[in-house]
Amino acid sequence: MKTTPYSELVFGEDDLCDLIMQGHNLLELEHVVLDPEFAIGKIISVIDDVDALKTWTQPVNSTISLAEFDANKQQQWFMPDEYKTLDIAQYVLSLCNSDEELQRCGHELLMFQERNMFDLLRYLKYLVDTMTNHQVIWGVGRGSSVASYVLYKLNVHRIDSLYYELDPTEFLR
Fold first, then answer.
1. Predicted TM-score of the model (pTM)
2. What is the DSSP letter of 11?
3. Which run of H or of E encompasses 20?
4. What residue spans of 33-87 are helical by DSSP H?
5. What integer pLDDT is reported at residue 50 of this predicted model?
């Protein structure tokens, strides 16, 4: 399997055959990017609904810049509407139990807003809720993200950056 400069996984004939041999239903796969050199006719013999293959795509046109690609993808976050419309700032502030927590979260939320990162916070809320509902265990926290008290309040990590007096600018540079 190849990866494009845009981090897309590009499936070739061998990759699709491997998936079939592993018991995957190719028609249930989403976001399949086909290798342009791949002859779709070779796989049609094992697929009943050829029209379903039309949902599969070709790799991103390499004439767009990585910044343009990122901007386009950021407009297509996959999450339920309830998260897309969530007032994330109000939600985070409602989790605060003291004036000190309110001030810290308010300061960080302004930093997230300046960087146009509220959709990321909404997605992290959705991700944490989904992992919690499915009893997925993830790490305590790592790297500079533990400096963010907002991420702590959203349960992304378990390091109380307010207690340890970690500077949020270590994460939001």
1. 0.65
2. E
3. helix 13-21
4. 41-44, 66-74, 81-84
5. 54
Question: For residues 165 and 163, what is the distance between their CA atoms, to the nearest angstrom?
Answer: 5
User: pLDDT by residue (tens digit) across 39-90?
Assistant: 555 555 555 555 555 555 556 666 778 788 777 777 777 889 999 999 999 9
Report helix, strand and coil shares of the chain as percent, to nearest 5: 50, 5, 45
Place of tokens 């939600």: 91
| Terminal CA-CA length for the chain | 35
Strand 33-34 with 9-11, pairing: parallel
Question: Which pair of tokens denotes residue 22?
Answer: 């592993």
The dihedral through the CA atoms of 93, 122, 104, 151 has a sign that is positive
**Beta-ladder partners of 33:** 10, 57
Instruction: Please list, in sequence order, all residues whose beta carbon lies within 8 angstroms of the beta carbon of residue 147, skipping any fewer than 6 positions away.
Output: 161, 166, 167, 168, 169, 170, 171
Give the pair of three-digit tokens for residue 165: 């007096």
